[in-house]
Every structure is written in C-alpha cells, then in structure tokens.
From TrEMBL:
Transmembrane segments: none annotated. This is Eukaryotic translation initiation factor 3 subunit H. The lineage of its organism: Eukaryota, Fungi, Dikarya, Ascomycota, Pezizomycotina. GO terms for molecular function: metallopeptidase activity; translation initiation factor activity. Pfam families: eIF3h_C (PF19445), JAB (PF01398). Residues 13-160 form the MPN domain. Its main location: cytoplasm. Keywords: Cytoplasm, Initiation factor, Protein biosynthesis.
Length: 358
C-alpha cells in the first residue's frame, strides 16, 4: 500500500499564502529580469504542499554588457553549480530549525506568458530527473499587474522525459512515440492555502462601511439638493480602446510564428539536402553494379559496393525540439488572445451599428 502511494501521480499543488507573497515580491522587484528561486515542502497524498521558498542569489547586471545576457544567466540559475550548493546549504539550515526542507521544485517569473524555452525545459529536467514529484511554479508579472494573480504549476510529462533523456527528437522517433507539442507539459491545479490562525484573523477584520446616500424627505429636498447617484460599475467598462496587453501578446504571437516558420524552413532545407545526397548515392551504386557486372564478365574480382559510406556523407537531421517548443508557445499566446478578446468582442458587437458604414 505504501508503494502504491509512493508512485501515485501528483494531483494538485497547494501553496501557502506567505510563499505566494514572497514569490510575487521577488518577481516584481526583479522585473523585467527573470527571477528564480527554490520551493520546499512535502508530498501529502499526491498533493504537493509548498510551505516555504527562498530566492537564488541575484545576477550582477552591471558585469554584463547586455540585459538579455543577464536574463539568460538568471534563467539558468536553478541548475548552476554555485546555486545548487547554495540550495543544499539553505535546506540544511531549514532542517536545523524543524522547517519542511524537502525540495519540491523551483519557481520562475514570466512576461505575457513567455516562458516556454530551452532554459525552462533544462531547469525542470534537472529537478525532475532525480525526483519525479517536483514542479515548476510560473508567476506572470504582466498578467498579475491587471489585478488577478497568475500562478501556474507545470511538470514535464513522462513521455517527454523519456524522449529528452534519450535525445530522440527526430521525425521518425516523434512519429513512433506519437509525441506532440501538447505532450510536453502537464499543468497542475494550484490552490492557495491559509493557516487556521490567519483565516480567523481575516474573519475578524471589520468590513469597510459603505457610504450611504441619505434619502430625501420631500420633493422640495430633491429640488433643492438633487441626489447624485454614482455610476455603477463605472464608465471605464465601456471603453472601446484595445487592451495594450492584447497588442503586446499579438506581437509576441507573430514573433513565435516567424520562429516556427524559420525552424520549418531549416527542416525543409535538410530534406532537400538529404534527397540530393540519396540521389547521388543511388547513381553511384548503379554505376558500381554495372562496373562489377563488366568485371565478372571479364573474370575479374568485383569492387566493394559499400564504399559509398566513405565517399558520401548524409546530412544530420536537426532536432525538432525547438519546433515543438515554438508550437507550444504559439498555443500559449493563442489562448491568451482568446481570453483577452472576450470582453472586447462583446463591446464591438454592442456598438457595431455605429461602426458599420451606412
């Protein structure tokens, strides 16, 4: 029974409210540089309980010439040797004060959902190869700035873990394993948990009193002092301007589509090169067979027919992993655009009579 419980897959992730506040503060202060850190907790009946967190040492931006280099160094922080030593040291100190010190993954910041890249894959594989029950928490700073917390949990699927370990991302291997861009990640539901003491404190906080409008006693009071009824919920909801986050997401979506077409063109170039080399090999083999037939007729020893392996070199097929990640990122942006356009579409339908030409 214990063995079955040990091998049970993860169902959800429960994050303490204090951990959420630490992650949000770290990611907000480091914006736009990528912020990363370690999360600790325990596995309780297939539920990962995240009870504490600590950030990795920050990267000195002044020592780098480009901000993108600093972001790359920060994104690779979870698997850096110095940070691995730092993480083990922190966990050892947490154990000394009887705090949950089981490493259950790491967290990172994102901007407009732009986190699906090789650094994210390598970091999660670094944790998940040693412990299957580790997750990656992604906090989107841009989306959270709109008023709603964006905190998601991901882990690599078992099929992708096997393919990444064997480095088999060729067309034939992907066709055999039926691995697609949808099978890269497994998203887990995230629940924010408060302690009983904090919940009791929140219930004891008095609610703010709403400003009551005194009712007029007579018609003379209305004529003398008209009642000013505030607009509810407000005129901001009737604004027809396009959401700036939607515009930025569309720009990122176009960039991802261009990257996808670039990867597709590289693969098509490889296929043309392979077809050209295979045609040359076929011609050489036909010529060698004709020479051997003539030599046999002249009672001479035939020439070896496997010399083409030394004379011709087939091109190496590029990995399809980048194409899969681009496709997954395009799907991510498309879902965000669909969510952003829900309110705008409703407004456009409401005023379409004024937008259509007469």
């Amino acid at each position: 029974m214990a063995e079955v419980q040990k091998d049970a897959p993860i169902k959800s992730v429960q994050v303490e409210a204090l951990v959420v506040m630490k992650i949000v503060k770290h990611c907000s202060t480091s914006f736009p540089t990528v912020a990363t850190g370690s999360i600790v907790g325990m596995d309780n009946n297939s539920v990962i309980e995240v009870t504490n967190t600590f950030q990795f040492p920050s990267v000195d931006v002044s020592s780098t010439d480009d901000r993108s280099d600093a972001s790359s160094l920060a994104a690779a922080a979870p698997r850096a040797k110095a940070n691995i030593v730092y993480q083990n040291e922190m966990i050892r100190h947490l154990k000394e004060v009887n705090v949950d010190a089981n490493n259950v993954g790491w967290y990172t910041s994102a901007t407009m959902g732009n986190f699906i890249n090789m650094s994210f894959i390598e970091n999660q594989y670094h944790y998940q190869k040693d412990n299957e029950k580790t997750v990656a928490l992604v906090h989107d700073v841009s989306r959270s700035s709109q008023g709603a917390l964006s905190l998601r949990a991901f882990k690599l699927s078992p099929e992708f873990m096997t393919a990444y370990k064997e480095a088999k991302f060729s067309t034939e291997s992907l066709r055999a394993s039926k691995l697609t861009y949808k099978d890269i990640f497994v998203e887990l539901p995230v629940n924010v948990h408060n302690s009983h003491l904090l919940t009791s404190f929140l219930h004891q906080i008095p609610a703010p009193k709403s400003a009551e409008i005194p009712m007029p006693a007579s018609l003379d009071d209305i004529r003398r002092d008209p009642v000013q009824i505030p607009a509810h919920p407000g005129f901001e909801s009737l604004d027809l301007s396009i959401d700036p986050f939607l515009e930025k997401t569309c720009d990122l979506l176009l960039d991802s589509i261009e990257s996808h077409y670039t990867d597709l063109n590289n693969h098509q170039y490889y296929q043309r090169q392979l077809t050209r080399e295979q045609f040359k090999i076929t011609q050489w083999q036909a010529k060698r067979k004709a020479e051997n037939a003539a030599r046999l007729a002249a009672k001479q020893a035939p020439l070896p027919e496997d010399e083409w392996q030394r004379l011709f070199k087939l091109p190496q097929e590029p990995s399809r992993l980048e194409g899969m990640l681009n496709a997954r990122q395009v799907d991510q942006y498309a879902r965000q655009v669909d969510a952003f356009t829900a309110n705008i579409t409703a407004k456009m339908f409401a005023v379409r009579g004024n937008l259509l030409p007469e």
